[in-house]
Input
Amino acid sequence: MCSVETNANLSSVAVVTGASRGLGKSIAMELSAQGIDTVLVGTSSTVQTVCDEIEARYHTRSRCFITDLSIADKVLDMAADINREYDVFILINNVGVGGTVDFLSATPEYLENIIGLNVRCTALLTHALLSNLLRQKRSYVLNVGSMAALTPVGYKAIYPASKSFVRTFSLGLREELRDTSVSVTLCQPGAMATNGDVKARIERQGRLGRATLKSTEWIAHRCVRQMFRGKREAVINRLAWVLSAIVPERVRTRMLTRIVKRELQ
Ligand SMILES: NC(=O)c1ccc[n+]([C@@H]2O[C@H](COP(=O)([O-])OP(=O)(O)OC[C@H]3O[C@@H](n4cnc5c(N)ncnc54)[C@H](OP(=O)(O)O)[C@@H]3O)[C@@H](O)[C@H]2O)c1
Output
């Protein structure tokens, strides 16, 4: 944990998980450009560097938590600190990890990390901050899923399943909170050239990998705009939506599994 103010005089803040790089950092920048104070979460001191960059560039206040969100107790400890120190009117559940591996070779730690971050952290953090969000006049939750949730794929048996959870959880909670001050928006990006692993996969997939590729800045801008409009979903890749509606799931699963298998070889 770092730089948490006691007796904070911050008014309402946006909490962004996985904010030290990639989409989370772009969302933090987008919110800060709109004059919103932020609380950013990451595992390394890079997140402090992002806070410093934001304060210098946008003159908003930005604080960070350095913690491991794959561990339930750490999620709950952080949420308790946030609830003590801040009014939260935006929660961006962005942290998430993926990967490609044949299921038998996956280590228990690999499976646990994906489930811990993509599923457990999303549910626990939302639950722990919900009373705080409900106290605000108007508040927003943006959950980052993935287009991967639309199609089950071999060699990715865990990641799309975890993002299906994000989708179902978001849409169900949105309905449950319909008559409250909290609006829940789902965002399901396609490929973004963020970390080294994803960049290499996009490269190996050639034209298919590039088909849904978008910059994190573009996606962040679109997601934040749709979130403030109270949309059910920030639609990012219309073509992918249309294809998933037209091509039967069994066909998509076979085709994508073949491509991913080639990629692994
Ligand atoms: N990249 C894609 O092509 C793609 C496509 C569809 C959906 N998505 C989804 O979009 C979201 C963002 O992905 P991204 O590619 O932008 O991520 P990324 O560049 O890999 O960045 C991951 C972020 O999460 C933080 N993080 C990782 N493990 C953590 C942990 N155990 N506890 C706390 N923080 C942790 C990292 O912090 P540190 O750097 O400080 O460790 C970093 O800020 C994810 O939910 C991902 O599933 C990504």
Notes: Residues 26 and 217 are 5 Å apart (CA to CA). Residues 3-8 have pLDDT under 50 and may be disordered.
